[in-house]
Design a protein that fits this description.
Layout: H1 23-54, H2 57-84, H3 87-110, H4 116-145, H5 150-176, H6 182-202, H7 218-230, H8 233-249, H9 256-263, H10 268-289, H11 298-318, H12 322-349, H13 356-384, H14 386-422
Helix pairs in contact: 1-2, 1-4, 1-5, 1-6, 2-4, 2-7, 2-13, 3-4, 3-6, 4-13, 5-6, 5-10, 5-12, 8-12, 8-13, 8-14, 9-10, 10-12, 11-12, 11-14, 13-14
């Protein structure tokens, strides 16, 4: 699929929203926005429901563990699928699974037959769908907009993700608190948004593969993707550091319900308010980063964003009141969005088109790690306290950013030394 096709007709790059001039990408963006609305509602509802059924931080972690383990298995296969198959086909199947999960949870809650194990099944289904959805969506966006607007398109994708977080969690919390809707009704509303995403995907171009399928076993292609990353030190450093930042730092999200309801003693609605604070910070930063994501300072901005994120997570663990936490989480959202947008852009810009799906899948494995780490972190929180556990998450994320900077400088010094010797 050429960016210059009918679906790829566009205006020159430059503005914060320039990639939305590409018709096919604009349709993909709206599909993602509807999908994220549904998913963000479910993240809150799943956490609230898990807490209501068990009142244990470990149970919250177990729900995310199921999500993470499934993503760990599915994401590499999703990367192969996005390199081998038309991207829209992969996205439609994934969106169907997300829709079925939302609809199923809504029905079991409304009919009052919900049990904790059903949340685990829903987490497995969502992890499976995301394992295929994420790599295909990013690879599809890269095909539609071309290299000149890749950073802008990735940042706007993050804007749609985080923009929905401004009000989707609060909206879900509000619906959950209304007797007529409740948690079950809120799940069904999220299913409606998921159906809207499916309809938008039907209007997208096919996203055909740009090269013939290798005919090899999928696991052979996965191994090829790993070897590809291992052969490029800059790409390898980026993926390893991102893995630790996201695996540990992003886990603060899993424990927001416990922080709000147990530590601050507030109701479900405040869970959505706190999650929305993160999204507000994310949207503000994304509008600025969209103009610079394709510029020469992208790596410096990524490192700065990651450092801000890690330090803010540490501060969240020490926040004395809910409204202090609200301000801190806004900073967390800003740092997280900058880091995610720019690390994705840099990873794709360092990759050739035939490996982008697999590179993106390896980058997404950090979210599988995020889910897997949630259970031991939840159990740790039960032993040492939630505040200290959140602080440790921020420490690991901050150290990972620092280690990346040290490794990059060492690589630059080695390259300069090699040049000097050659002279």
């Amino acid at each position: 699929m050429s960016p210059a096709s009918d679906h790829g007709r566009r205006t020159p790059a430059g503005g914060a929203f320039s990639s939305l001039a590409v018709i096919g990408y604009r349709r993909l963006w709206f599909a993602g926005t509807f999908a994220f609305l549904s998913v963000q509602m479910q993240f809150l509802l799943r956490g609230v429901l898990a807490w209501d059924l068990t009142e244990r931080e470990g149970a919250l972690g177990l729900v995310y563990l199921c999500f993470g383990v499934t993503m760990l298995v599915a994401t590499p296969l999703g990367g192969v699928a996005s390199d081998r198959l038309p991207n829209r086909r992969v996205l439609l199947v994934s969106q169907s699974v997300l829709l079925a999960g939302a609809l199923g949870m809504g029905i079991v809650v409304v009919t009052d037959v919900v049990q904790f194990w059903m949340l685990l099944v829903a987490s497995v289904a969502q992890g499976l769908a995301f394992g295929f959805y994420g790599p295909a969506r990013v690879a599809f966006a890269a095909k539609l907009v071309g290299p000149d607007q890749l950073g802008n398109a990735i940042t706007l994708s993050m804007l749609s993700l985080n923009g929905t977080r401004v009000f989707a969690p609060a909206f879900a919390g509000m619906l959950a608190g209304i007797a007529f809707f409740g948690i079950g009704g809120a799940y069904l509303v999220s299913a409606v948004f998921s159906a809207g995403a499916f309809v938008q995907l039907l209007r997208c171009p096919d996203g055909a593969v740009t090269q013939q399928a290798s005919g090899r076993h999928p696991f052979t292609d996965i191994a090829d993707g790993v070897r590809y990353v291992a052969a490029f030190p800059a790409l390898r450093r980026l993926l390893v550091s991102s893995f630790f930042v996201i695996m540990f730092g992003f886990n603060y999200v899993a424990f927001i319900p416990a922080l709000v309801k147990d530590t601050f003693g507030l109701t479900d609605g405040y869970v959505g308010v706190l999650m929305s604070a993160s999204a507000l910070g994310a949207v503000i930063v994304a509008l600025s980063i969209a103009r610079h994501a394709d510029g020469p300072r992208a790596m410096q901005l990524m490192v700065a964003s990651g450092a801000v994120f890690g330090v803010a997570v540490i501060a969240l663990g020490a926040a004395p009141t809910f409204w202090t936490a609200f301000l801190v989480v806004g900073v967390i959202g800003a740092g997280a969005t900058g880091y995610q947008s720019l690390s994705n852009t840099l990873a794709l810009s360092l990759s050739d088109e035939g490996h982008r799906g697999r590179v993106q899948s390896l980058l997404m494995l950090s979210f599988a790690g995020f889910g897997i780490a949630a259970l031991p972190l939840g159990l740790l929180a039960e032993v040492i306290g939630l505040r200290l556990a959140i602080g440790l998450m921020g420490v690991v994320a901050t150290c990972a950013c620092a280690a990346f900077v040290v490794a990059e400088r060492a690589a630059d010094d080695s390259a300069d030394a090699d040049v000097a010797i050659s002279r």
